[in-house]
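I have been asked to look over a protein record a colleague put together. This is what I was given:
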Amino acid sequence: MPLPKPVDALWIELQSVRAEVLEEAEGLSQGQADWKPSTEEWSVGEVVHHLTIAELTATMRATRERSRQSIEKLATVDPRPLTFKHFRFGDLDLSQWWQLQAHHDGIHLAQIREIKDAPGFPRA
């Protein structure tokens, strides 16, 4: 189903970040996924787990498909009356929730890349 331009742009942003997160995480050895720059920082595996709250990359792919279905539904309605309370930001409409999700995933994408670039990260 074709999406209206603003919704399509949101979908592209969300999927782009998620695809990059998946690309960064795929193919890592267990040692790489578990490695932490310090005891206070997360490993790539912990970041991915945080994003999916379930089975790592397989669930992330399934989540991406469900997100697409939700975005398609968003394209058929005015998202402004569809509000949900965020624990920190208060009432957000459905479009704002998806924008927040894309931003959130982007933060963790940068985090994964920093972990992988840190001195001592296992290369295999």
Helices lie at 5-25, 30-34, 44-52, 56-74, 94-117. The first strand starts at residue 83 and ends at 86. The chain is about 65% helix and 5% strand.
